[in-house]
Design brief:
- The chain is of the alpha/beta class and about 400 residues long.
- It folds into 2 domains: about 130 residues, Aspartate Aminotransferase, domain 1; about 220 residues, Aspartate Aminotransferase, domain 2.
- Helices cover about 40% and strands about 10% of the residues.
- It is built from 14 helices and 12 strands.
- The strands form 3 sheets. Strands 2-8-7-6-5-3-4 form a 7-stranded mixed beta sheet, sandwiched between helices. A 3-stranded antiparallel beta sheet has the order 9-12-11. It has a two-stranded parallel sheet with strand order 1-10.
- Helix 4 runs parallel beside helix 11, helix 5 runs parallel beside helix 6 and helix 12 packs parallel to helix 14.
- The radius of gyration is 21 Å and the shape is globular.
- The site of pyridoxal-5'-phosphate (PLP) has 13 residues, from helix 5.
Length: about 400
């Protein structure tokens, strides 16, 4: 085969560490090893039946053709209504476009707003795709560290110190992947205050886990708290996590009209519309009643608590209580081993699959998912306890 000269852009993409770990887990499992997998980034149940039925009916009813790149008008209007009623946000369909998962919403946003060298402040720990997507758009990720001991709070003085004349975006993600942290109202207001001082800075607010929250927690969208910044706040959200529709690939971007127009133009020249019948399923998803979310959150609360209490009881680990999403992000006893090394050894010696913190911006933590059965979580905790004792004490 002749040699291929990959583009600089392609060469700049870092291969996924998490994929390497899961490939290794599959290989060991195929060899007959007893594997306990707590690495899931998706719900462990199916989407509600009503959504599945509406989607399959839509196929028979002809929703199988090309549609508008920005999404089905009925769905865009329904999302606008959801934003008004559930998030207290004043939006109409022109502020919304439907994307192939929340991922494409972020990708499009950076492609249409970043110029070469523009900086994007990413508070760590962060979802691992942000820096890659910033780079793919020619931007420069600027990381803002936080510490597990400090509850992964965004320090406002440190944030201000990262701002330069090239700063174009600050990313916020609440509830957070990988920490499960929910940003409190006061902190959101402080972030808004910082942004008010800098007219060229926009906010990307990733709210994909808004529906997965501990009992006494409520989701607050920054745009509803800082209406004066509306034109500079872009929300990304989607159906993957709340409704267990990860593989359906439907998300959305919310923002000012001109950006939505530019982003739709980009999408019209790349992927076009999100699958037509899947958009009918998303429309049905927005009709899901509150009981469904109460039920799934009861399950998550129970399992999150088992995971949290179990981690708290492992000597040497430091853990902040996660209040949303379905992850915990404990800190390893010391830095004698990188998180990648730790996860590789955990898998080889104890058959436990967890995700290294390194690609999330913290090499002394590991991400553990509670989107798994109670038995599996308990099994994983016991393997982890043995490993920590053997490796560190
Ligand atoms: C924080 C965060 N944002 C965005 C996404 C992307 O979601 P989607 O599957 O809708 O593309 C994920 C998926 O894991 C995520 O964890």
């Amino acid at each position: 085969m002749s040699e291929v000269n990959l583009s600089k852009r392609a060469l700049s993409i870092e291969p996924s560490l998490t994929l390497q770990i899961s490939a290794k887990a599959k290989q060991l499992s195929a060899e007959g090893k007893d594997i306990c997998n707590l690495s899931a980034g998706e719900p462990d149940f199916d989407a509600p039946k009503e959504i599945i039925n509406s989607t399959s009916e839509a196929i028979f009813n002809g929703y199988t053709k090309y549609g508008p790149a920005a999404g089905d008008l009925e769905l865009r209007k329904a999302i606008a209504k959801k934003l008004q009623t559930k998030n207290n946000l004043n939006a109409n369909f022109e502020n919304i476009m439907v994307t192939n998962g929340a991922k494409q919403a972020i990708y499009n946003l950076f492609q249409v707003l970043l110029n070469d060298g523009d900086e994007v402040i990413i508070p760590a720990p962060y979802w691992l795709s942000y820096p890659q997507m910033v780079r793919l758009a020619g931007g420069k990720p600027v990381f803002l560290n936080s510490s597990a001991e400090d509850g992964f709070k965004i320090n406002m003085e440190a944030l201000k110190a990262k701002i330069t004349s090239k700063t174009k975006f600050i990313i916020i993600n609440s509830p957070n992947n990988p920490t499960g942290r929910v940003i409190p109202k006061e902190e959101l207001l402080q972030i808004a205050e910082v942004v008010r001082e800098h007219k060229n800075i926009n906010i990307l607010s990733d709210e994909i886990y808004e529906l997965i929250l501990k009992k006494e927690f409520h989701h607050l969208s920054l745009a509803s708290l800082a209406t004066d910044l509306r034109e500079r706040i872009f929300i990304i959200n989607g159906f993957a996590k709340g409704w267990a529709m990860t593989g359906w690939r439907v998300g959305y971007l919310v923002g000012q009209r001109d950006v939505i127009k530019a982003s739709s133009a980009l999408q019209s020249q790349s992927t076009s519309n999100v699958c037509s019948f899947v958009q009918r399923g998303a429309l049905e998803a927005l009709k899901t009643n509150q009981e469904f979310f109460l039920k799934i959150n009861k399950h998550y609360d129970h399992r999150r608590e088992i995971l949290y209490q179990g981690l708290k009881n492992i000597e040497g680990l430091f853990i902040q209580p996660p209040n949303g999403a379905f992850y915990a992000f404990p800190k390893l006893p010391d830095n004698s081993m990188t998180s990648v090394e730790f996860c590789k050894r955990m898998l080889e010696n104890y058959g436990l699959v967890v995700v290294p913190g390194k690609p999330f911006g913290d090499d002394q933590c590991i991400r553990i998912s509670c989107a798994s059965s109670k038995e599996n979580i308990i099994d994983g905790l016991s393997r982890l306890k043995k490993a920590i004792f053997n490796y560190y004490f």
